[in-house]
Amino acid sequence: MIRIGGWSRLSTCDWPGKLVATVFCQGCPWRCGYCHNPELLPVRTPAAVSWAQVEAHLGRRTGLLDGVVFSGGEPLLQRGLPEAARRVRALGLGVGLHTGGAFPRRLARLLEAGALDWVGFDVKAPPSRYERVTGLGHAALSARRSLELLLASGVPYQLRTTVDPELLDGPDLAALDSWLAGYGAPPTHRQAVRRPAEPRAGAA
User: Fold this and answer.
1) Burial status of residue 82 (CB atoms within 10 A of its CB: 0-12, 13-18, 19 or more)
2) 0.90 cut: is pTM over it?
3) Which domain holds residue 29?
């Protein structure tokens, strides 16, 4: 139903204040240089886990988990996401989504259907820097529309930005805060970019 690149059976950090299972969906249209999960970028990589396995696990954890977070990759790439969300709800669990907003029409359908209980929205940059971060010229338009839809929906959310000093500087972050303030939105939660540890001198 959805292509899953991996999952976490138990997470305390993917939905603030909630105990969740996190499903990492395979595929993303953007190419952010600091991507935390580059193995999830290719769309056609075979699934590592089946939805049936995930659903069976969730059924055994009823009463223990608060919800499921669909992360990625970009989960909105999965056409089966609405059905997966429906099945999670049928188990009595909440539905969270991590997204960069690459597919505003698909996000709109989920929001209009009341399928989401919380959204972690990755605001990559102020609009003028989106292409620099994502590698795609139209990414800012998609992200802007998705953000507008989310803010108008009333669904609880957290806005986050990964700060790569090679891509975003102080004035960029100030421009980002100013842009969001125009929507009445708070500044984003900032997280530092994670880079692979440098090998020690003399290490094999």
Assistant:
1) middle
2) yes
3) 4-192
